[in-house]
């Protein structure tokens, strides 16, 4: 038989000739040679150059991240930056530079956000190049891998199992070619393609092989944007970000009437110095804006991408980091996930007295009949060389749906035969004596394929009927060394692992048992699962290992779990996993997986290491847990700022603070601490209801802070009189607000570690330095006058701290999120 050039799917393929110089055409069945032995030569170099010159190139940009312009625009042109920018300009004309410090802080924050997102973009773009699909095209009689963007109109593109159709075209060659168009049409059943049929970009091959001629490239292709959308860096569609957007919407609506009332109160009702009134009005409006919250969320996500990128983990959709942290069920495909992709033939057992030498010839011929062998067939190819006098006259590639492959041969001595290779429990009727022997092998975690001689033609509807068992091919699977530790991690984190495989259920159970999966003995043959969603969901909740699962069943199982309120992650690398990956809340693909799986997955493990998943989970938990912490800090400030403004308007008194005071307080009690807290390790399991969990703390904390501060202010107004009284009143109120805000920070920083204690202490020390150093006192207009009122301010703050502790405990008990 003609030796076939095999493709290395793990790296760039060298150019290879399409026609074997030693190949001899079978005069009876000339078309049954491998396609590459008789294929058209494709375009010439000159023809490619002409098409490039005419612009007939597949030039659709595939981006893994937002453009630099988009990043800058998103960080600079925000609603709150516009408000603060206007107020900043006003302050330049009416107040000293120290009252304009809040504007410089915003510039610094925006710059930090841009830099971190650009770093994340660089990381993502580099990883995307590693994981980019590289289709094989034929040019000048040679086949070679090229970038998708290099395909030109008229190129002949080869297809094999798992390959994406990257541009629209017309089938030129087909060898049992089956294409899944469900991502485009919604139809789950694969479509058999014949020469002349149309193929659409965005579909993928599930079985067989062939080639098609590109008829539409670039933006003219039917689904030209699919690959771009699948691998785009995005900051939307996450509970965290949508929750923050909801909060900001309500904050905006609160700000408008409160700001108007404050402006009228300070500029119209109070007949005081105009410039001082403007400064105090701005001082009341600026702290209402939680300007750093969106920034820190973006920075936390961006740094998460960078950290995961260093571990060769490509996050194709940014909220996937958050999503995987919320997952409570992870569905694992066995082959390629728990086990390595490669296999070894451990044993060959003859059945019915068959001749071993003859069986070797059959297996060698079957190996050569498939131009794109899967892992099982590749192990057989490695173990049994091809018999050159056998000719393949017809072939049926392996399909996950039917669980077997087959081929018909002319044996070189005038004899013809048809053979099937696949799952024993599919090819054999129930109760067959051979199944008992197979079960014993499966219980050892071995994979068993049955070689059977078909009684009829390969294209017969019931080709398996009457098949004669001839041999058992026993394959040994290589367990991933890190799989056991990863499964143990998920168990410790209360994430249920469900092994879903197309292999024999007993064999899958044995592999799961070797890896220490909890509930590995609870094995279910998916052919016996209920078809209705409720019954399937109950069976999935009660069991952990499922075998003989079809691709459509994998999809149904994901949906059934979701119907019971689970957040589901699906891992896989094969074309049979695509539908389930697409429907899961989080799809995780191996980097060596098919192009189709990488296209629909939100996370791609480029190093093919299942052990990377805990890092992704941990990164998601860090982002969610820490942003919840810092959001409470920011929104506490918003609440007390709004309430203070309302109290000032109702009391018809001067607003107690200048912008410089609140800039100092925000920096020491929120800005600097929040940056460290947002990036700190955090293993707390992600919880839902982000808005409710944040506001249940922020509202009582803000109310207590506002009440304590205003009480101190009113007490100081009755205590001080004469010139400089307002400055003394402001200093006392600032002291109370700082101490209460510090106590909020101290609560948020729990549980304490050495660096968190140091962080809180350092912020307190910085404020103490401001109160003690004369030039800083003058710069920030802070000077405590006398001893009675400052100690009164401390006493009120202490009362506020006690109320905070009580409120925190009441909230935890009565309003659990």
From TrEMBL:
PANTHER family, alphabetized: CALCIUM-TRANSPORTING ATPASE (PTHR42861)
InterPro entries: ATPase_P-typ_cyto_dom_N, ATPase_P-typ_P_site, ATPase_P-typ_TM_dom_sf, ATPase_P-typ_transduc_dom_A_sf, ATPase_P-type_domA, HAD-like_sf, HAD_sf, P_typ_ATPase
Signal peptide as annotated in the record: none
Organism: Streptomyces maoxianensis
Name listed for the protein in its UniProt record: HAD-IC family P-type ATPase
Keywords annotated in UniProt: Membrane, Translocase, Transmembrane, Transmembrane helix
Bilayer topology: Multi-pass membrane protein
Record's subcellular location: Cell membrane
The keyword Flavoprotein appears for this protein: no
Transmembrane stretches, start-end: 76-95, 101-118, 250-269, 289-308, 630-649, 661-682, 694-716, 728-748, 755-776, 788-811
Xref: Gene3D superfamilies: Calcium-transporting ATPase, cytoplasmic domain N, Calcium-transporting ATPase, cytoplasmic transduction domain A, Calcium-transporting ATPase, transmembrane domain, HAD superfamily/HAD-like
Residue stretches making up the P-type ATPase A domain: 136-229
